Amino acid sequence: MPQTDKQVCIPPELPDLLKQFTKAAIRTQPPDLIQWSSDYFNAMARGEAPPVRERTDRVPLSNYAELTPELLKVLHQRVGGRLIIHVDELAQMWKVLNLPTDLFESIMNVGRFTEEIEWLKFLALACSSLGVTIAKTLKIICEVLSNENESGPARIPFSTFQFLYTYIAEVDGEISASHVSRMLNYIEQEIIGPDGLIKVTDFTQNPRVRLE
């Protein structure tokens, strides 16, 4: 059989390994991602604890503001509804809000963004640094994107939720595409009303909706 016909075998432990690495990188926010990655995998190979900053032991940054959903909402308002934003402009907005530069660089690296950034993807990864789970991350995103003038729980268009959930699941790497598809189909057919909007409670309090 020709070499090109052979099936590529993916090591079963690879998806979980990459998922844990990605989460560790976002949580730790190393200033030098390449060096930190080398230290991370060398520690894993030696059976030692990798250099990961836990959520409970963040080093206070006296010169920077802590990232919060409120600051992300301000940033989203300044982006002004654009789908694409240039890295220099976004970096300047980030700097004006006095947010950590290493976090910005970490999000850029994880998202593999270049000069033209898809804003919603960047926002999703920024929210994931605050959310412990995918559901929590999507809850934060909904709160950031939701119109302040609307009464009741935060809500966004289902099409936006669909895009963001699919993207976050791809970055996470552990959730199958078929599971994502089943959840989105169920939400669209059984939950979404004529207004086409999804509320936070639709995916956080419904026992049939399991995003992970």
UniProtKB/TrEMBL annotation:
Keyword Secreted: no
Main location: other
Domain of life: Eukaryota
GO biological process: cilium organization; flagellated sperm motility; protein localization to cilium; sperm capacitation
InterPro entries: ROP_DD
Keyword Ubl conjugation appears in the UniProt entry: yes
Cross-referenced SUPFAM superfamilies: Dimerization-anchoring domain of cAMP-dependent PK regulatory subunit (SSF47391)
CC terms in the record's Gene Ontology section: sperm cytoplasmic droplet; sperm principal piece
Subcellular location: Cell projection, Cilium, Flagellum
Family statement: Belongs to the ropporin family.
Protein name: Ropporin-1A
Record lineage: Eukaryota, Metazoa, Chordata, Craniata, Vertebrata
